[in-house]
Amino acid sequence: MAKALFDKYGGFKSVSRIVMAFYEKVLDSDEIGDFFDNVDMPSLIDHQTKFIASLLGGPVSYSDERIKKAHASLDLTHEDFDEVGRLLKETLTEQGIEPQDIDTVMREIESRRTSILSVGTP
Amino acid sequence: MSITAISQQLLRAIGVGIAVLRGDDLHFLFWNEPFSEWFGKPDSGSSLPDVLRDVDMEEIRAALQQNGRYTGELSVKVKRRTLVIALSIAPANADVQDLYVAECQNITRIRELESMIDSYSSMVERNTRDLEREKERVERLLLNLMPRSVYEEFKTFGVVTPQLYESVSVVMLDFVGFTRFASEHDPTVTLGELNDIFTAFDRIAEQFGCERIKTIGDAYLAVAGMPEPSPDHARAVANCAVRFVRYLERRNQSHQHKWEARIGLGTGSAVGSVVGIQKYVYDVFGSAVNLAARLQAFASPMCVVAPGTMEEFLADEFHLTDLGKQDIRSFGELRLMRVSPGTELARKARQF
């Protein structure tokens, strides 16, 4: 994953906008919002900041192990995963990320599906 | 519209949560839309603690009495979002405390951004630490390739300019029968042996003020007097040389593979510089280096040979044996001598 995306969109400036918009969407979502009912705000923000930054190739990398751990207790389904993917795509589009870059990010997300869901391939 | 009506309208319209409380018992007299969105609609006759259950009434009363106003922060959960609300309560009229105004500002976004900045800065700091470590690793690596002072020049100016050192000494060592050993043994064995021996040589060199410049196969080249000039360079290389021999003798007593080396010393001028652009190698050139190489080839196994010109520097400390005049290629006739440990060192050597 090219470091370029992170730099191309102005580094932290764009990460912060995306994180805030994505955070709103996730919390407001009827499908998946419930997962965040009991998650405290700072840790959710922390998680998403690092996650978005790593997706864009920023100064952090999330190991699959860590992703697994973070989601292990949630019992997520493929539908949940797809919904988060949809919300992220929507967010990125609204934040003016170019379509081909969104595709890159979505591929990154997809490659983590098994880690996030803690299941085998569908 | 009356002034009162307009004021009420205004209070309803703003995005700040406002409630008006009776002075004596803090009962609600008025609240606006944002306030009820965050805390729910106060029932008639309810007072502040009924609605803001998390607040510490003792603290509020104390603050109002002492400072005439209270400021604090509370969090409420609206749907699944935790809101952080800054609450301030102050009398509507400073003189008569019959009415209090509770003002609530939604500072959730500020707190969220603060969390994000915290998160991000911890990432960046970790990254910076990683980079710092990486930088140190690179520096250590470069210091293996060139002396520190040369590295400093390289770092500051981007290049290393060749520098002439008028007076340096060189020690050059080469193993006897290395080619045969290498052909008869597994390369890993050969490498292991060289690594072991050269590591020991490096320690000796460092202790006696020499700097190893390079190894070429089984040849070992170290200098003294550069890049830091030193008046003792001749003694430094001789000290290394006799200890190299002693180390090998001792090692041969306990190791399966026996090694013998020829050692030549040289003295004179040399130029030191980094050679190459992509693959930096700090190297030395000059008559001192050539001389050491020639004398090393001339030396008998486990002998150290030095030019007669070094005599005055070595005579005090070492046992010198005159080898007479010898014809050395590209140097012509030179008086040579064999360098062995002096009585003091030989005595110590017997002790261990």
Average residue pLDDT of chain B = 88
Fraction of residues in H or I helices of chain B: 40-55%
Category by helix and strand content of chain B:
alpha+beta
What is the CATH topology classification name of chain A?
A: Globin-like
Distance between the termini of chain A: 24 Å
Q: How many alpha or pi helices of chain B?
A: 12
* Proportion in β-strands of chain A: under 5%
User: Tell me, what's the shape of chain B?
Assistant: rod-shaped
Fraction of residues in helix of chain A: 55-70%
Oligomer: heterodimer
Shape field of chain A: globular
Q: Give the structural class of chain A.
A: mainly alpha
Protein name (chain B): Class 3 adenylate cyclase
Organism (chain B): Roseibium marinum
Pfam family, one (chain B): Guanylate_cyc
Domain Guanylate cyclase (chain B): 169-296
Features:
A: 122 residues, mainly alpha, Globin-like, 7 helices, 65% helix, 0% strand, B: 352 residues, alpha+beta, Beta-Lactamase, Alpha-Beta Plaits, 3 domains, 5-stranded antiparallel beta sheet, 12 helices, heme binding (chain A), heme (chain A), transport (chain A), Hemoglobin (chain A)
